[in-house]
Amino acid sequence: MNLSTGNDYSFLFGSQSSSNESTGFSLNDYASIKNGSYGKLLKSYYKEQKNEGKTAADVKKETQTKGAEYSEIASLADKFEKSTNKLLSSSSDLFELKDVTKKNEDGVENTTKEYDMDAILSAVKDFAKSYNDFMSKATKSTNKNVARRAENLAGQMTNYYKQLKSAGIEFNEDGSLKVNEDTIKKADVSALKRVFNGKDSLLNQVANKVDQIGTSAQSAAKNLKGYTSSAKYANDASVVGNILNGQV
Fold this sequence. Notes:
10 helices; mainly alpha; single chain
């Protein structure tokens, strides 16, 4: 779900066919960029925006602003996924008993099986922070679909208030998450696993929702379009900006 913000034109050559509508660009379109006709068409198109109360500069600024916003939301969704991998992964040893050797007052060493509660706490903190970072942007998105999905997720989270609280996750007044360290360290690890570990966990449901929202944001960024010489839409808003800046 990585969304590149650089000027990567490799997608121009996604198809050998100049009639492939799905790619948005063809080799003919690329040729029109090189000979200048593409740029003239775009500039003409944006000039017409004045009739709608927008100048070319307004349209360019709006495209760049929204593109940056949607890209950031998609990036935060990726960071959320990475932050939850250690909790969710079936191959993670986070919830496995480990040999812990301690010395008693007589200097005798005893080895017992224990959970690394500090490691579990650290992973839960990472989850809460990445969730808060993501939701703070997604719920305020200018894209209605992204904002609606994020608000729905926030509402669904409150439905699991008791379950989350038992696992050390509580809510601030603004709906963001906070971690109760004492609760986690004293909690039954099996209860923590039901919330945080595996495909049947609550966290996995949340992760799937975040992924869907991130995909919506990525799609919104890609759909910030200008016209091509074939009266089709260009797929990447950065191409429009480059043409208007005289960089293509």
